[in-house]
From TrEMBL:
It comes from the Bacteria. It comes from Oerskovia enterophila. The gene is gabD2. It holds the Pfam family Aldedh. This is Succinate-semialdehyde dehydrogenase [NADP(+)] 2. Its EC number is 1.2.1.79. The keyword Oxidoreductase applies. GO terms for molecular function: succinate-semialdehyde dehydrogenase (NADP+) activity. InterPro entries: Ald_DH/histidinol_DH, Ald_DH_C, Ald_DH_CS_GLU, Ald_DH_N, Aldehyde_DH_dom. Residues 1-29 are annotated as: Disordered.
Length: 555
């Protein structure tokens, strides 16, 4: 993998001209359809990674693109439906012995993986930028997330998975324990926007819980997933416990058709299909779906901090972030002061292709994302919205770049008022009071994440409790809740089902098994002895016992 770093470093040292502030930028638009176009990543760099894909090489290749220029990045051999079945079978065999290792042994793998990711972050930062077009700052968010999640489950998995004593049916006589067993093979389906974070979000707790994992990344971001597979092996994960299949929706559906739990991250539309298929098979699901996340600036907010926080919340990863803010809701008392601070900050963001930290915002990842952003902005303008910043395709930098955009006076009928844009576009709404703010925040089919800015945090918590969202950040845009990995993360309404992170995130990947021991059998204290009593005696004895238990407030 050092080879990838060397290769990318060489590219990064080529002269820059397109970006606004990137010292090490990638230059030149290349027609991806041109058969003579050569791949940006050399075959000897890509070969060891793609060799990890479970494929019989019968399904052809996917040509991934370098979003910064549109050049062909790498050829990714695709898996067939049969390959998926093979991968799950291999994973199932490996899982049988993995389940017999101790949690401490499995946690040690995660903690070694934690160190390797931090040590070798430059490799994956390059890969993440090359596959997604994101800025290095946004790429580092993924490394930071993996550090958080691996440390959390590496340290806490033992406690989460330990047998738990609970009250039995009858005190003293009934001893009940809840034991957690791995479900078997967990399938993970990930989108392209945060391929390291989202490729591993359920995989890491799944592995430490004793499962095997088969991951299907988006074909555009397969190399990042394969890099993670390589590092997990280096961290000591035995073979076949983390396998990668490559392909699109058909391969995702095939995976759902074989595994014991499906952890899906992606759009709500696809999530519904996955849920329906999983429902047929009666397997568990974790569904992390879309959002249309609001940020409310209350009248007493510290406006300069709110403006700064909103910039990061709206434009990190060019807005291609499930918890990204797409709706700014401003108390009318501070609305103009906020916009006077916010809009210049947005206009001042630097865009570019640099493989270093000199750029604020990178590219969109694909033509499809660009098309969606352009369509949403055009539609809003046609409906009477006004541009406060951006609103332009920045083809001068790269084919998929779009300026960070702030829209005012967006009518509720405009697509971007209610549909997820998943791009660098935010709309502004003014409200007269907190009650209206809450109503506007909740006026969405989604409920993933929200943000409230106020200097009165007690009031912030009271408002948060009225917001229909799985996570509410007070005086932060999005990262505090997502980064608090001890706490569950997921969506209300059409934003998902189930939770990742914390106890909930690992318990979802296990089967709780109740084991109950009835004591005193040899002394004639069994239920059979009780029910052998004549007439209504068993009922009377039990009725008396229940009354005493309630008096003692036994649970
Ligand atoms: P998508 O739903 O189009 O694709 C996601 C993944 O599902 C891809 O790997 C795709 O190949 C696969 N897929 C497609 N059809 C499938 C099927 N029928 N069965 C199984 N798998 C199938 O989403 P996308 O455009 O790649 O990602 C963007 C969306 O993801 C946005 O809506 C965003 O909000 C959401 N997202 C949610 C979270 C979260 O944690 N809630 C995080 C990131 C992204």
């Amino acid at each position: 993998m050092g080879a990838v770093t060397r290769n990318l470093s060489r590219m990064a040292s080529e002269p820059a001209d397109g970006g606004q502030g990137g010292s090490a930028a990638i230059d030149g638009l290349i027609d991806p359809e041109d058969p003579s176009a050569t791949y940006v990543l050399e075959p000897d760099v890509v070969a060891p990674l793609v060799a990890r894909i479970v494929t019989s090489h019968t399904a052809g290749d996917h040509r991934s693109l370098l979003p910064f220029t549109g050049a062909p990045l790498a050829a990714i051999p695709l898996s067939s439906v049969e390959d998926v079945a093979d991968a799950v079978e291999r994973a199932r065999r490996a899982q049988r012995s993995w389940a017999h290792t101790t949690v401490a042994e499995r946690a040690a793998v995660l903690l070694r993986f934690h160190d390797l990711v931090l040590e070798r972050q430059s490799e994956v930062l390059d890969l993440l930028q090359m596959e997604t077009g994101k800025s290095r700052r946004s790429a580092f968010e993924e490394v930071a997330d993996i550090a958080q999640v691996t440390r959390h489950y590496g340290v806490r998995a033992g406690a989460y998975l330990a047998d738990r004593r609970v009250g039995g049916m009858l005190p003293v006589l009934t001893r009940a324990t809840v034991h957690r067993r791995p479900v078997g093979v967990v399938g993970a389906i990930a989108p392209w926007n945060y391929p390291l974070t989202l490729g591993l979000a359920e995989a890491l707790p799944a592995l430490v819980a004793g499962n095997a994992v088969v991951l299907k990344p988006d074909p555009q971001t397969s190399l990042t997933a394969l890099w993670a597979a390589e590092l997990l092996e280096e961290a000591g994960l035995p073979g076949d416990l983390f396998l990668v299949v490559a392909g699109g929706g058909d391969i995702g559906a095939a995976l759902t058709g074989h595994v014991d739990h499906i952890a899906f991250t992606g759009s709500t539309a696809t999530g519904r299909k996955v849920a329906a298929q999983a429902g047929e098979r009666l397997i568990g699901t974790t569904l992390e779906l879309g959002g249309k996340n609001p940020l409310y600036v209350a009248a007493d907010a510290h406006v300069p901090s709110a403006a700064q926080g909103a910039v990061r919340a709206c434009f990190s990863n060019s807005g291609q972030l499930c918890v990204s803010i797409e709706r700014l809701i401003l108390h009318e008392d501070i609305a103009e002061e906020f916009l006077d601070a916010f809009v210049p900050l947005v206009r001042g963001l630097t865009l570019g292709t640099a493989l270093d930290y000199s750029v604020d915002m990178g590219s969109l990842t694909s033509q499809a994302q660009l098309d969606r952003v352009v369509a949403h902005v055009d539609d809003a303008l046609a409906e009477g919205a006004r541009v406060l910043a951006g609103g332009v395709h920045r083809a001068d930098i790269g084919p998929f770049f779009y300026a960070p955009t702030v829209l005012d006076h967006v009518p509720p009928t405009a697509d971007c008022a209610h549909e997820e844009t998943f791009g660098p576009v935010v709309s502004v709404t003014r409200v007269p009071d907190d009650a209206t703010a809450i109503r506007v925040m909740n006026d969405s089919e989604y409920g993933l994440s929200a943000s409230i800015w106020t200097q009165d945090t007690a009031r912030g918590r009271r408002l948060a409790a009225q917001v229909e969202a799985g996570a509410v950040n007070i005086n932060d845009g999005y990262a505090s809740a997502f980064g608090s990995v001890s706490a569950p993360m997921g969506g209300f309404k059409s934003s998902g089902q189930g939770r990742r992170h914390g106890r909930e995130g690992i318990e979802a990947l296990t089967e709780p098994q109740t084991i109950v021991v009835q004591r005193g059998v040899s002394r004639g204290l069994s239920f059979d002895t009780l029910y052998a009593q004549p007439g209504d005696r068993p009922s009377r004895l039990l009725t008396a016992a229940f009354s005493v238990m309630k008096k003692l407030r036994l649970p």
